Amino acid sequence: MMLRQGTWSPTAEVLLDAQSELLSAIEGSSVIWCGRGATALYWAYRMACSWGEPVAHPEIILPAISCASPALSALAAECVVRFADVCPDTGMVTMESIKARLSPATKAVVFIHLYGQTQDLQELAAWCKANHLLLIEDVAQAQGARLPNGCPAGSVGDVAIFSFNRTKILRCGGGALVLRSRLAEELWGRIGIPDQPFREIDPVVAAELGLSERNLYHALVTLQRLSCPTGRQLSMEVFNRCYSQTYVRSMLDPAKLASAWTTLPRELELRAAKADLYRSRLSRGPWRLLDGCRASGVCWRYSLLVDFPGKLTEFTHAVRQNGFYVSNLYWPLNTLLNPADVCPSAEEFGRRCVNLWVDDSVSPDWVTECAEVVRAEGERLAADIQHRESIRERR
Ligand SMILES: *Cc1c(COP(=O)(O)O)cnc(C)c1O
What we know:
14% strand; binds pyridoxal-5'-phosphate; alpha/beta
């Protein structure tokens, strides 16, 4: 189903093939098409909160390493965000840390397939079930990926969410919430959205606010990286008051999405070919390749964990000076949104991770040249550090 002009209507005819493909791939029962991945998450959180005993401050457990949208849309749904630490080698949440965040107010766990990597989710699914928590599988960065057991990403959670917006695998706009369990169907029925009038945010305002939010987020992350004090209260309140309306958007263009849908296999092939180029050119160097995309079949951003965490920003700056855009996308969200949830491995990951581009904004030649610059600048920095250390030892 989808929202149109403030009321619910059946999925548009042009999207029916995509819908049945999606449902059969991940064994879902319904798709709620919407304007953003963040909107799909917002509704998933509302569903989770309507389950079980009402609590004053429902809590959602999220990975500390991620883009900010899953956490910020939880704030928009009036939830408390709790952050689980990640595996320092993959950046994906660990079972141990998720368990440590459980409280009587916990309502849901979000698992994110980061950068297209996947992970076996059976243990997490069983634990969520035993503790009456909704498992939300976030597939925004891993559409089409395979789990280690060969099943598709999105085929384990009670619900799975997708994003088709700018920077994701399909970039035609929109998002989706897929219901996958009887529990999910029941909760969706309970939150009663179909009867409520829906006020759509003006797209121009949404775009302006979206840009402003990204700017503020990046500014705050820079301050965190440099260990400048930023008030937690300030960042939470500003995000919540100014941006919460932008997380709930219903509109997508069904025809655009239907035609983008058919390009997915080709899109994944082109991305994998670029990932292969990085892999072969960067196989040795002062870093470790974050190569989970090889097994999952989906590369969202090809990523490295550098051996010179103290020089990460200097490194990305040097690569950019050569005309190649690389980035350090994520910084532990707990530092910004809930510092009491200490996540040391997420900080280590955030200080080491560099993301390289594989989408349609770059060509294979660009990738090859970029890899050479990454290699040269990385080796130069590592040698520089070694040189300084040897001088210090001699003294
Ligand atoms: C981008 C993203 C989202 C949000 O998707 P939008 O369509 O931009 O709202 C959610 N989760 C993850 C992991 C993402 O990367």
